[in-house]
Design brief:
This is ATPase. The chain has one domain: START domain (Alpha-D-Glucose-1,6-Bisphosphate, Chain A, domain 4, 2-Layer Sandwich). 23% of the residues lie in helices and 42% in strands.
Length: 137
């Protein structure tokens, strides 16, 4: 029997300017094929709105809990048995456009077990650099 997910979690928020339109960026944030190009080793659809994120040959199941086309997507992580848990970890990507400067910003909210905030910042900067390479922005 799996133990409940009781680790202390923190909400980490970071924004990055990205030189690409929301229409181009969104598939990289909301689809298995797009995410596997920059975010983790592989992503596979499991069933319905559920995906399997694979890092270092370990499975991490998540459910798409909310999505607005070309705007936002939220992944809520499940237990090892693919069940919902109390106070689940989640990852949310939101795209915002500045009407004045025409810049696009990717906002990341990472609610997960506590990590060193400097390490988390470096990790996201590295991941977003990979994303920029993919979209040319």
């Amino acid at each position: 029997m799996a133990l409940p997910d009781i680790q202390a979690k923190t909400r980490f928020l970071v924004e990055f300017p990205i030189n690409a339109s929301p229409k181009i960026l969104f598939p990289y944030l909301a689809t298995a094929s797009g995410l596997s190009q920059w975010f983790c080793d592989d992503v596979r659809y499991v069933e319905g709105q559920r995906l399997n994120f694979i890092w270092d040959q370990e499975n991490h199941y998540a459910e798409i809990s909310g999505q607005r086309l070309n705007r936002a997507v939220r992944f809520v992580f499940l237990s090892e048995t693919r069940q919902t848990v109390a106070d689940p970890s989640f990852l949310e990507f939101t795209l915002d456009s500045s009407q004045v400067t025409d810049e696009v910003y990717l906002r990341v909210i990472d609610y997960s077990p506590s990590q060193d905030s400097d390490e988390q910042q470096e990790m996201w900067e590295s991941l977003v650099a990979k994303l920029r390479e993919q979209v040319g922005g």
